[in-house]
Amino acid sequence: MKIMPLIQMPKAPNIIAPPMVEEQLTDSVRATLIARIKQLMLQQNAVLVAHYYTSADIQDLAEETGGCVSDSLEMARFGHAHAARTLIVAGVKFMGETAKILNPEKRVLMPDLQANCSLDLACPADEFSAFCDQHPERVVVVYANTSAAVKARADWVVTSGTAVKIVEHLHKQGKKILWAPDKYLGDYVQKTTGADMLLWQGACVVHEAFKAEALQKMKLAHPDAAVLVHPESPAAVIALADVVGSTTQLIHAAQTLPNQTFIVATDNGIFHKMQAVASGKIFLEAPTAGTGATCISCAHCPWMAMNGLQKLAQVLESGDNEIHITEPVRSRAVRSIQRMLDFAAEQQIAPRMRGAA
């Protein structure tokens, strides 16, 4: 019997999330800021692209001004197609970088460059590159929630909407996969496709916190509710889902399923859009902890909460917080993204990672 060599799996850094600080504004201050931002955007030929997990104020402003509320990749693609010379990206840092990778000729600004992502932080480029070097026989596939430098090291970038199809395609070719950074999404893809995958051990601080035992109790309390789960969640949580999918798929399920109540296991920023497309339905946050918890669910990204109207106005007035990526890194990163886009176009699938970055 052939003895397989023991593979030393990487240990992701321990990520400590910052305190949750959400913007609190009076109605008059909010109105003044919105008017000022609209004026500055018009003067600077700017468009606002925002993620689903940002505040209702940011999402509403993006749509009111002809911008976009979506996932990181679709935000970047929208910015590329739009005539605006300045893209304001309300989200987390890797989203601004993705926008710059696909739109190098445009100015890309962010309200707060400290708005990071636990998946991105858990996959330092130098350590990841060294791990890739140890396994040259494997195709490197990374989730979009990674830095420009990690994307530059990858063969493929995937989203939650394309991950299964792309890994399935590579598996049929006999390829072995090195996957990063989300271990839960990687586990879901591996179980779905049967591919040989080495998984980097990163996790989203929001989705990792969902608890299966508490969710099971919540299902019993709401027997008619459908459970919607993002695949960045732990396997035990995914096993309780009625629908597993990207943010777009979860929004579509909320809109089209006959259920009047939904238990939702993803960032609660998505509720703003769900309530807009499925008014009258009830949306409950999936539990992030059990007995003794200080909150029933804390399902919101503290880095996403760093985006606010005050910071948005400040960055337009100052021109600070511009995203810069060196051309050698950008040119390598765009290849791995373009490979996904070409595959998606050929397979006629929507390459959308709605949420999670």
UniProtKB/TrEMBL annotation:
Its EC number is 2.5.1.72. One of its GO terms (biological process) is 'de novo' NAD+ biosynthetic process from L-aspartate. Pathway: Cofactor biosynthesis; NAD(+) biosynthesis; quinolinate from iminoaspartate: step 1/1. GO terms for cellular component: cytosol. SUPFAM superfamilies: NadA-like. It is found in: Cytoplasm. Catalyzes the condensation of iminoaspartate with dihydroxyacetone phosphate to form quinolinate. InterPro entries: NadA, NadA_sf. It catalyses: iminosuccinate + dihydroxyacetone phosphate = quinolinate + phosphate + 2 H2O + H(+). It holds the Pfam family NadA. Its cofactor is [4Fe-4S] cluster. Keywords: 4Fe-4S, Cytoplasm, Iron, Iron-sulfur, Metal-binding, Pyridine nucleotide biosynthesis, Transferase. It comes from the Bacteria. This is Quinolinate synthase. GO terms for molecular function: 4 iron, 4 sulfur cluster binding; metal ion binding; quinolinate synthetase A activity.
